[in-house]
Amino acid sequence: MPVIQPRDIWEVKPADGGPSRAESVDILFHLKDRRGRDMVLGPTHEEVVTLLAKEFVRSYRDLPQLIYQIQVKLRDEPRPVVVCCVPASS
């Protein structure tokens, strides 16, 4: 699944009339590709999976579908510090 995603899939308004995901996400890293299209660094792959389901699921008879995502998780945060508690010997 792509890490850099087209911005337009994030700007689709939900059916209930609420805000788009791009409006509700505070920080989306954005850039333009070499063709000038707006792209974002997608924090999740839900929108990409939704597009896949929209393309391949036409009826309830097409369900269930299993969609797997296997990739390296990249995080921009400090690594957790492991603290080991060892009881003091008497």
Written overview of the protein:
The chain is of the alpha+beta class and 90 residues long. The chain has one domain. It contains 2 helices and 3 strands; from the N terminus they run βαββα. The protein has a 3-stranded antiparallel beta sheet with strand order 1-3-2, with no helix packed on it. β2 and β3 form a beta hairpin.
Quick recap of the structure?
The protein is an alpha+beta fold and 90 residues long. It has helices at 21-24, 46-56, and strands spanning 4-6, 30-32, 38-41.
Summarize the helices and strands and which ones pair or pack.
Blueprint: E1 4-6, H1 21-24, E2 30-32, E3 38-41, H2 46-56
Antiparallel strand pairs: 1-3, 2-3
